[in-house]
Amino acid sequence: MDPHSHPAPYSLAALTAHIRPFLRDLRNPEYRDALVRDQGAFGAIASAITAAFILLTILMDYAIDPVHFTDAIQLRLAEAAAVLFLAWVFWRWPGSIAARLLFITVPVFVLVTFLETLARLDGGAAYGIGGILYFFIFMPFMGRPLGLGFNLFALAVVAITPTVLHIFGFVQHLNLAVYHSYVWVAFLPFALILTLVEFLYWRLYQTRIELSRQASRDHLTGLGNRRYFFEVAPRELATADRTGHPASVLFIDIDHFKRINDKHGHDVGDRALTHVARLLQSSLRQSDLVTRHGGEEFLVWLQGTGPRDAERVANQLRARIEQQPLPDDGSGHGPIPLTVSIGIASRAAGQEKSLDVLLTRADNALSTAKQQGRNRVVVDSTPLQALRLPR
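Request: output the structure for the sequence above.
Response:
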């Protein structure tokens, strides 16, 4: 294989191709929720480590001015307490409005008190200004749960605060030229590294989504698999129960599928499965849940559909599959007729809330359809009291 036929995972071309979806997902609520879930604890721990660093700056104050460093201890304790409070909020409510507000106000408070501390030390403004840069290094780690955009915004607000204060007559002891040389020279590298970290997390997020999609999809037909059905259907059933709307499930079985495999081979059997899957998917609404249950069986969830409409839909499916046999693939066997049997169970408002009961009823109806000669639709009419409910 030509090694140059595909770009490397992190080549310039590959990175450029990812820019637009990366920027789009930054505004995606699902991505933001995943970021909060994954990075909330990280932000809390990073904030706690930052609080410990602030306490250690007492040693730096002592090194600058051994005589007056005790004048600033209370300020250092207040800074550490504020950052610890931020860590607690990140731990409990990492994506909340409170976390966002505190991620701006707490660093601003730390920066202002940091400048006041330097004012109380002889030579503090000259020798201690570098400590501010350390705090800036910690901030992007603290704000990881809040996302790239808000992190950069908060970092910029905190960085510009001393300049604004100086304009209004405060922190006059601060040498703005030195401050700017420390902070703004480092701001762009901070922003780039923060963007890179966000991009790497986004790539991990995309990989996780793809793996989840593959795990919930049937590799042959492309439909959702059994696992996917049991992830989605309970939520749909809960919605139907909450809104009082009906719901129906279709249990579909390809008739005499074993004969197709035995007579024509498993390759043709696989084509028959994909053919039926395609007909089912193209005949139903996008909101309907169509899955392969296993073997030659399919499950269809019809939200907001009562028994009469479900029976009408099932008969349309049955007729379409019968009218469109599996085409000849060139092997000379000719079109292969296909039929399906379908069992239906519906849940009306106020009826049972168990998905297992619905599936049992639909399976019973499917068995009845097979017993009656196949290629037909049967609606379950079993009284609820006659069913053995799962414990």
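The first strand starts at residue 247 and ends at 254.
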